[in-house]
Hints:
Keywords (chain A): Signal
Largest sheet of chain A: 13 strands, antiparallel
Low-confidence stretches of chain A: 1-26
CATH superfamily of the largest domain in chain B: 2-enoyl-CoA Hydratase, Chain A, domain 1
Strand order of the largest sheet of chain A: 6-5-4-3-2-1-13-12-11-10-9-8-7
Largest sheet of chain B: 6 strands, antiparallel
Number of strands of chain B: 23
Helix content of chain B: 25-40%
Low-confidence stretches of chain B: 1-28, 109-115
Mean pLDDT of chain B: 89
CATH architecture of chain A: Clam
Protein name (chain A): DUF4412 domain-containing protein
Structural class of chain B: alpha+beta
Organism (chain A): Longimicrobium terrae
Distance between the termini of chain A: 35 Å
Domain DUF4412 (chain A): 142-247
Number of domains of chain B: 3
Number of helices of chain B: 13
CATH topology of the largest domain in chain B: 2-enoyl-CoA Hydratase, Chain A, domain 1
Radius of gyration of chain A: 18 Å
Oligomer: heterodimer
Strand content of chain B: 15-25%
Largest interface: A-B, 39 and 52 residues
Strand content of chain A: over 45%
Structural class of chain A: alpha+beta
CATH topology of chain A: outer membrane lipoprotein receptor (LolB), chain A
Shape of chain B: globular
Distance between the termini of chain B: 43 Å
Signal peptide (chain A): 1-22
CATH superfamily of chain A: Lipoprotein localisation LolA/LolB/LppX
Number of helices of chain A: 6
Order of helices and strands of chain A: HHHEEEEEEHHEEEEEEEH
Amino acid sequence: MSLRTSAVRTLALAGAALAVTAAPVRAQALPTAQQVVARYVQAIGGLQALSSQQYRHMTAEMSMPAAGITINMDAYQARQGNKFVVKMEIPGMGNMGMGYDGQTAWSSNPMSGPKLLEGKELAEALRQYDFESNMNFARMYQAMETVGRDTLNGESCVQVRMTTQSGDQVMNCFADDDGMLIAASVNATTEAGTMQSDILFSDYRDFGGIKMPATTRMSAMGQQMEIHVKSISTEPIDASMFALPAEIAALKSN
Amino acid sequence: MKRTITAAACLLLAGCAGTAATARTPAPEARSLSPELAAATFDSTWSAVNRTFWDTTFNGVNWNAVRDTLRPRALAARSNPELRVVLSDMLHTLGQSHFGIIPGGEDAALAAGGPRAEGAPGEAGMEVRWDGARFLVTRVEPGGAADAAGIRTGYAIRSAGEIDAAHVATVVPRLPGGTDPHRAAFYAWGAMNGVLSGLAGDTLRVRGEDGAGRAVDAVLTLRPIAGQLARFGNLPPMAVRVEQDTLRSDGATVGVIRFNIWLPAAIGALDRAVNDLRGSDGIVIDLRGNVGGVGAMAPGWAGHFINRRDTLGAMITRRDTLQFVINPRLVNPAGERVQPYAGPVAVLTDEITGSTSEIFAGGLQALGRVRVFGATSAGQALPAAMPRLPNGDVLLHAIADMKGPGGVRWEARGVVPDAPAPVTRAALLAGGDPALDAAVAWIAEQNRSRARTR
């Protein structure tokens, strides 16, 4: 799980996606979940490379054909304090965002206004945007188990079911050939309800010594979305980037 | 965003395009659409509905059989207008709102009743409603084209441009649900609305009668639109108008907010309007003629009037149910801490009030937060998506059912006013506005009641 995945999930609530084609299961011994994720971490660059990163700044473009909308996104993360800020610019609507400054998680957009994240929504946001979400599965999930194999777009993968602390389930599928995460089916609980998203990851590229999917396709609520990563920088990010926006600070002033 | 992008905007944008195409036989023309493109467009349309229609019985329709029956006709279509007839016929079999084809390319703005590419957008400066046989002028924009031509509220319109009331009266009953007067009013309005806008400087011939029954034969020269021209996603460009006013009645100060469509371009003005009118004894939200728009705006704006997390309703797809969660608005546009507006709120609806407007009005009505005045709304409240088709047109298709608090469903039924106050020609001619007058009187009474208990 990475920032891309998180962004996808966030925007799933906006309605987008991609279909995952199930295929016959192959009779073959299944590795343990721990073996699968260890191979994945190695495949994307290894624990050392992952651990050396302290910051990430991703730029991406998301398109939602069902709405005719293309969104520009900047996502900033800092390992220390698990801070994050996601900024999106939607043509015809304006800017929206969400973030966490180490103490307060928030979201704000022109339509629904600013709000502080609470309860399961808060827990989900913190889990999704955890800096180590793509390396520290043991911390991210209370349980993991391999459950079978699937074939997606002709590629065989091992299905690993992961359960979050709050009980939501994620079914990840890791490619047999290179160990990469190529698909996920996410059943996430939000303030609005529980929603299932099917996600495909492809076009893995090297970003700062770590391989990440440059293309993510997702289906949710019967709609589709594509995310194309344009760049990922690991250069230091100024602390002011994670400061609470003025309207969020006003909310906290009560 | 939408799960959020509950399309809505315009049953009419799509519905009218489909309606017109269904009602007329396209003029013969040279083939401008290849069979391959026609097939791809037809298949995309069928598949999108097949994949997303929330009711797996397809409302009792054999969706596979519909495809098999209509696909040969689609392949034989020689032009996009011909193909739209076939696609509209297919979508109409479902008997639901929010299914239609929005013409793309050069046809888009024209079909939407919106501005075209080659000049400044213009409008007639009047609103009309169908009374079953003719159009009544329900509003005239001061200083607008209709005003300049001497058109007044209450006048009856028999024809405007290419739209003739007698023809409308003949065609509308043949449309799905068109024998229902309520639905007919919406169809007729859509047909007429298309000719009331165009390019500034265009002329529009209007024939009808004044209040004394004298013939009116006027030529309107369209004037630049009042409001902001806005685009959002695949929707054609549309004029966005947000108006606010303050009335005084029986010692009460009443704020009035009126807007024509739920597009993000309106958000800033809507937020400011609530803030400006915060000191009023009551607020009237006039959603008459507001056909809907981006669904996520409804719970967002409702947060100005609700002080607790609640839901305006739920959209129900095949596998998920998502709530339209209201976020209480605790910060004003200046970034200052405030409380949501707590005074009485009246909402005005009529038969053109559709989709997102119905979710807003009906949801807050079901929560007991507003009192609704006017006429029953359009009954077209389904969340929809708007993907572009291979031929460049846009498919408007509902992706979920919608239920309000307590399970109330507005599709086909509409939001039923607490206090019916239908518009009448006599009232219009007298300069009255029954729904607004009743709403203001209610707020004044609420104000008096509060004063008595203080």
